[in-house]
Amino acid sequence: MTSSNNMLNFGLFGCGRIGRMHGRNITLNSRARLAACYDVAADAARQAGAALGCTAVASIDDILGDPAIKAVLIASSTDTHVELIRASARAGKAVFCEKPIDLDMALVDACWRDIGSLDPLLMIGFNRRFDPEFRSVKERLDAGAIGSIEQVVITNRDPAPPPPTYLRESGGLLHDFTIHDFDMARYLAGEIVEVSAFGANLVDPMFREADDIDTAMLVLRTAGGALVHINNTRRCVYGYDQRIEVFGAKGMLQAGNRHPSTVEVWTADGTRARDPVMPGFMSRYDDSYRAELDHFIDCVVNGTKPITDFASAREALRIADAAVASMKSGKTMRLEGAGRGS
Amino acid sequence: MTSSNNMLNFGLFGCGRIGRMHGRNITLNSRARLAACYDVAADAARQAGAALGCTAVASIDDILGDPAIKAVLIASSTDTHVELIRASARAGKAVFCEKPIDLDMALVDACWRDIGSLDPLLMIGFNRRFDPEFRSVKERLDAGAIGSIEQVVITNRDPAPPPPTYLRESGGLLHDFTIHDFDMARYLAGEIVEVSAFGANLVDPMFREADDIDTAMLVLRTAGGALVHINNTRRCVYGYDQRIEVFGAKGMLQAGNRHPSTVEVWTADGTRARDPVMPGFMSRYDDSYRAELDHFIDCVVNGTKPITDFASAREALRIADAAVASMKSGKTMRLEGAGRGS
Amino acid sequence: MTSSNNMLNFGLFGCGRIGRMHGRNITLNSRARLAACYDVAADAARQAGAALGCTAVASIDDILGDPAIKAVLIASSTDTHVELIRASARAGKAVFCEKPIDLDMALVDACWRDIGSLDPLLMIGFNRRFDPEFRSVKERLDAGAIGSIEQVVITNRDPAPPPPTYLRESGGLLHDFTIHDFDMARYLAGEIVEVSAFGANLVDPMFREADDIDTAMLVLRTAGGALVHINNTRRCVYGYDQRIEVFGAKGMLQAGNRHPSTVEVWTADGTRARDPVMPGFMSRYDDSYRAELDHFIDCVVNGTKPITDFASAREALRIADAAVASMKSGKTMRLEGAGRGS
Amino acid sequence: MTSSNNMLNFGLFGCGRIGRMHGRNITLNSRARLAACYDVAADAARQAGAALGCTAVASIDDILGDPAIKAVLIASSTDTHVELIRASARAGKAVFCEKPIDLDMALVDACWRDIGSLDPLLMIGFNRRFDPEFRSVKERLDAGAIGSIEQVVITNRDPAPPPPTYLRESGGLLHDFTIHDFDMARYLAGEIVEVSAFGANLVDPMFREADDIDTAMLVLRTAGGALVHINNTRRCVYGYDQRIEVFGAKGMLQAGNRHPSTVEVWTADGTRARDPVMPGFMSRYDDSYRAELDHFIDCVVNGTKPITDFASAREALRIADAAVASMKSGKTMRLEGAGRGS
């Protein structure tokens, strides 16, 4: 539509399911163009390149060394994030990296020591902040719709367990899945100063075998004194249950589940029945993935800071580490020092 | 609780299902006492008397002639209403009579000619005006919640066909069932000046055989210019569907169905499913029957006029007559002369 | 993404608001390409061409004579539809024309006499059949979810009156607005054999001055015996109220309004409050516009017939004509002869 | 209605707000009769006696020594419960006592040591088990509607703080208010084996001054391995928020709030808005208070055990004690030994 001179050229690292989804969003964005894609598996890159209409390149440097490419989107496996962030920042690219930065705080901090002085434009993909439902909650909170926040209840239930292979690399429920809720809690209610985590194995023996849990309840305390409850599970038969409730001195806000349609069925067996809710994160959060990309492009165009920056992603990891410590010790963990970032 | 000297003593005519229900409500009302009951079937009266703790009398005059009985509740068959109203009014009783007055306008008008000069306290049981849901709608309308009324949509669907014997005496769907909606339309939106009725036979051949319909849609026009839609059926598998929507210049009010509980079921087959709605008029309108009795007692105690008086019941009949004429002629019928009553 | 050789090249007639919306949908569709646009106002065409990345042409023949353009999308003013359909069909183009064909049945029939023998691929844009909500209702009906259809209630309320200039050319509420509901009634419940229409002027004097109405209620009867109620208004303060209820022998289906978000606000003033519903047809029906385009492309690619064809659009007009006659005469109008088309 | 010979005669201890409410329920129950009432404040007893139509007696023994009185209802202040239970059980009465038995476990156990061998019919008023909403949840769970239970979320928010005087005697939020939720958790999900409690002071300084909290979140673990979350507050501006969600392997059940009516308001400011929810425990749980009385009478008539017996009330207290210990220590408390009772 507009000439490609005005468009932001992206290079894509990682051509798996998430990478291709981000790649497609780039091609649909009127301000962006997908120039090149790379994957450690050359076949995957070739197929993605064909499907997305971009060049499949054979090495990372084909992207980092291309001056026409101003931005990179990192959607490769978690263990490659830190190295790609470092190299991309040094190459002067604007960097959008899928969450998490890494599962190991030492590597995360080493990464920042190396690139912090470059003041890179660096966004970590905590996409749920960009979901229209939750964003609307945040805007109403900021507008004072319910006064000061006293309680937050976050329900986050995965429709079905991930494959065992994924499980081993994921870092476990609290680092892989609940981490979204830690970020959301901070986004809505401010810094977290206390974490208590409770896990259970109710869904599938494979979780216990992987030294992981499949069911969790947590209670967090914010710097402002509010209490936050998070509940998680790896199996939810009626779909991907995603709800947030914020209770305050002057009222309550609830963001409910999204359904494929508004149609209600009334029969002798029951009334007002609707279909199961959205079946998974791709369908449930499609808006948020497009919106976070748009936010990233805004930041590049306007020279502003992303609201999901390196420091905020680090803070979500810090809470996840504390949550694991709490679950194992049966004690409440204090988080010393206010979090950085937004 | 309070001494019976302060209580309003009732005589009950008619000990069928409705009569016993009203009788029970009298016994539960702290300002009323059921003194006596009568039924043309002596056995029915005896059983009701035993169940309700009152004297079963052998003749109408045992009630009308008892000076301690100040009020009568007429719940006998429709063809006895006019005569009992007349005799009760002449005996100086306050009269509560189940709807309708009669199915024949000539008899209705003859009745009033005989008793109008007595200025009787006479209430006809259009109970739905006393339903908390619809009353709340009315109060909000009066408070200006949605500005001037432009459209009303009344959904009134019976769960299951009445027995064939009832059908023959009922006067047909429009006189027996829709008449509640005619009264409700007047209550909410004012006098009706135009009626168009459309009937269908979709539920059971017995209705056609009885020269009746089982499905209807109507459009009414009020003196204020608003349009009113009514839809009816004699079979609704998910319960007794009772809804009202009022649309105005500044918004809309909706009174929804009542369910036995708020419980929602979420499974792989569907979400948010609730039980069928209330199964029939006894369970759905129990509040309204108690409230209309209370209103009647208020009128006796305070010397005020009931909001469902003789004239308003006559007006509902007049609209039903016009609806039948419209259905048969395929034309819109004008109602000349504003209705009387409230 | 795919090479443009495989894409369906479109020419666009009419670059107003609707034309540009369709043009954008063409550019977003992975199987289509917008080759050229034309408008009687050359400036409008130029601006649309720039915004949509296509050539703005100076004459209709630049599109009709271009063999690379296989399909046309007609979104010009209603009085040009018939002529453009005729010329496009003769030029061998696949034709997608915005509703209505024309407001004058004689012109509609003359058009078909001229092109019928060409057996053109010709789709009229009754977009609501492609709305995911209503399509879901249709699919459930077809699957027997509620048994045979007995009643349909269609609520269609415009948020705000159109500009007076539009009003004069629109053909009036029943031809411009209710016509969508006529088509929907046929889509869901089958052929219409009887129409009764009731109009009112409650919203703005401008409607009366234009010899139009701003509020309407209708009752239709289908060939299968079901009754259909439609209610319309030109002003609805809480948004674009779009609901359908279908009641059958075994249950009920309701398609409700869409809201910008699921967020509910609970305060001392009220609970469960949501934002106003979608503000207008562009936001409410965006999915349906994209889906109808996709259906059209399916038809071109597969050589199938569109479900919203010339005959079905003619039938919607025939019902609208009967509705006007009914409203003016105060009588129910019979529609002789079953409708054609789907 | 039925002769008083067949009725269960009650004596009432305590004529405050709760006592009068129970007294009224006795008078409304067709199987019960309120014979006498007593209060330490003779005036209160006299007024209640007049209002409820029973004899106001001057001493406890007037009730305990009356052989016609078979049952007592203890609704006096908490610190009198243990002594009245003991005396009533020894006098051979069936005993219905308001919750809690006492705030001090030592006194509770001493009480049972004294009367356990008498095998008294003794019910403690954990009324919420009899609420139709929650009972419906329980019945569906028992019927296997959602498979094995994995998570329970109980929301219990008081509309407004109690008076400071009450606060001092109440035993604190966890013993006075949350104790209902502890009992509910056991009722729905089985024995509790682990408790973690988190308190906050966000509502009113008076709570902190009373060494109490006004906001709480808890996580419990059941013997079956399920996790339970409870959230509480002493101030909720939209009414008495009472919800339960049970999540299982095959689905979810939600019992929602009750509203005074179903009426929804749609305006330019918002849509689907309903009134605040029920304002307090009297209006919200009126059904449950009547149903628990009926259950007690069933037990007396049939010689069965109440589902809210002494042991289950003791267990709720034991959980409350553990919750306090958890809150103060910041540690999860284990409850050794399975609970007794139902």
Describe the 3D structure.
The structure is a homotetramer of 342-residue chains. The first copy, chain A, is globular. In chain A, strands 12-11-7-10-9-8-15 form a seven-stranded mixed beta sheet. Chain A has a six-stranded parallel beta sheet with strand order 3-2-1-4-5-6, with helices on both faces. With 342 residues, chain A is of the alpha/beta class. In chain A, helix 5 packs antiparallel against helix 13. The first copy, chain A, contains 13 helices and 15 strands. The longest helix of chain A is centred in the C-terminal third of the chain and has 20 residues, at 310-329. The model of chain A has no long low-confidence stretch (mean pLDDT 96). Helix content of chain A is 38%, strand content 25%. Chains B and C meet through strand 7, strand 8, strand 9 and strand 10 of B and strand 7, strand 8, strand 9 and strand 10 of C.
Percent of residues in beta strands of chain A:
15-25%
Mean pLDDT of chain A: 96
Number of helices of chain A: 13
Principal-axes shape call of chain A: globular
Oligomeric composition of the shown chains: homotetramer
Adjacency order of strands in the biggest sheet of chain A: 12-11-7-10-9-8-15
Helix-strand makeup class of chain A: alpha/beta
The main pleated sheet of chain A reads as: 7 strands, mixed
Question: Between the first and last Cα atoms of chain A, what is the distance in angstroms?
Answer: 34 Å
Largest interface: B-C, 38 and 38 residues
- Name the helicity range of chain A: 25-40%
Radius of gyration of chain A: 20 Å
